[in-house]
Design a protein that fits this description.
By secondary structure, the protein is mainly alpha-helical. It is 77% helix and 5% strand. It has 2 domains: 102 residues, Helix Hairpins; 124 residues, Up-down Bundle (Four Helix Bundle (Hemerythrin (Met), subunit A)). The protein has a 4-stranded mixed sheet with strand order 2-1-4-3. A hairpin with a 2-residue loop joins strand 1 and strand 2. Helix 2 crosses helix 4 and helix 3 runs antiparallel to helix 4. It is rod-shaped. The two termini are 41 Å apart.
Amino acid sequence: MTKKQEEKEKEVTVEEKLRTLYSLQEKLSEIDKIKILRGELPLEVADLEDEIVGLNTRIGKFEADFKNAEASISQQKQKIQESEMKISKYKEQLDNVRNNREFDHLSKEVEFESLEIELAEKKIREFTQDSKNLSEQVEKSKELLTERSADLKQKKDELDEIVTETKQQEEQIREEVKNVETEIEPRLLQAFRRIRKSTRNGLAIVCIERGACGGCFNKIPPQKQMDIKMGKKIIVCEYCGRIMVDPELVGATEE
């Protein structure tokens, strides 16, 4: 920091700093109100977009599993054809056997291939059921995807309409915020932002109301009330950490 900047900072009184902080808070609260006007729409849009991505992934997996089931059915059918061809060949050979040993061997081969056919048919039934289930899952997921896509379009249209209505106003306030922030020393501005971030309602500086903090409504000791009214130093609430200011100092009406 240059000597000139230090001198300029010294010239700014605590009262002026508090008024500037309060002015900044008012503008930021206006932006917060615009965000409240948008409500939960941005979150709903984000949730729907995530859900649609998930549905597309799920549909892709179901379709891949469906193709695998269909391919497995084809493989089992091919096995049945091969086993039937072998059985036919073995039965022809049975007509020309020369001894019991050959007869037993061919009979076992026929029996083995028959069992292979039974096993393949069982697998075909299982894969067919899997294929049917997967087809139903794909259909249901696609229906849900269509519904969610329609919901997303509706929510986006609603959000775009609100954003369009408030965009110019918000941009103007944000520009004013930037201008006000240049008037606040960096360390104080950083502390203000930290307090604002830690509060649920975004209020980093509040007026005292009926002898209590306007943020958490805890009572303030009389001496501290006097110090706040004097506006000679920046005082934070020992309970919620917000900066406290006298309403008369910042031109606010005490409720």
